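Project standup — Tuesday

K.O.: blocked on the structure for the chain from last sprint. Re-posting the sequence here as requested.
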Amino acid sequence: MGPKRQTVSLQEKKNRILNFFQETYTFYNIKELEKSIPKKCGISPMIVKDLVQQMIDEDGVISVEKCGNINIYWCFKNQTLQKLYDSSELIKKKIQEVKCDIATYKQELDKTLATGRRKKFTVGQKSYNREALLEKRKKIQDKIKKKSNSLQKIESIRWDAAKIQENKQQIRLKKVHLEKTTDNIEILIDYLYKKFFLKPEQIRKEFGIPEEFKEFTEV
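H.V.: unblocked you, prediction finished:
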C-alpha cells in the first residue's frame, strides 16, 4: 500500500500560484498557466483557471488585461506590497476617524455631566435651578400619589352596573354553597339517627342546629 496522499488546502494552492507568479516575474495567458502551474505547483490543471479567477475577483492579488483576443495575467511582488500598503493606510484612516468620533463624544459627555452637576443651568435662553426643579418634581409626584389613592377609594365604594352584577354573582355562589352545607347537615342527622338511634331533636339541641334552616330568596 502506497503512502497516503496529503490534502492541500485551497489557501495553500493559492499561495503556491502566487509564489509562481512572483518568482517568474513575467506575463502569461491562460493556456500557459494551465500548462506551467500544474508542473511547478502540483495543482490539477482542471482547477487552475478557477483558482486564478478567484485570486483576481476575490483576493485582488493577480492582475489581468485583455491583449487582442487573449487575456494576459501577471502578479509582481511590488503589486502585493502596494496592495498591503494601501490596505494599511485605509485601516489607519478608519482608526483615526473612530478616534476623532470618540473624542467628540467624550467632550459632549463631559459637557453633559458637568451641566448635570451644576445647581443652575441654562437651556436655550431660559435659566433653571436644579434644586427647585427637583423639589417641584417631588411635590408633583406626591400630588399624583394622593390623587391615585383617592381614586382607588372612590372606585372601591362606587357602585355601577358591572360591580352590582359582580356582587350578585358572588352572593349566588355563597347561597349555593350554604344550601349544600345545610343539606349535608340534614343528611348527617338522618345518618346518626339510623345508625346510632340518636333522636334528631337531641342532636339539634346538642349542636345548636335549628329545626329548619332559613330560606333565602333569589338575588
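K.O.: great, moving the ticket to review. The longest helix spans residues 77-117. The chain has a mean pLDDT of 81.
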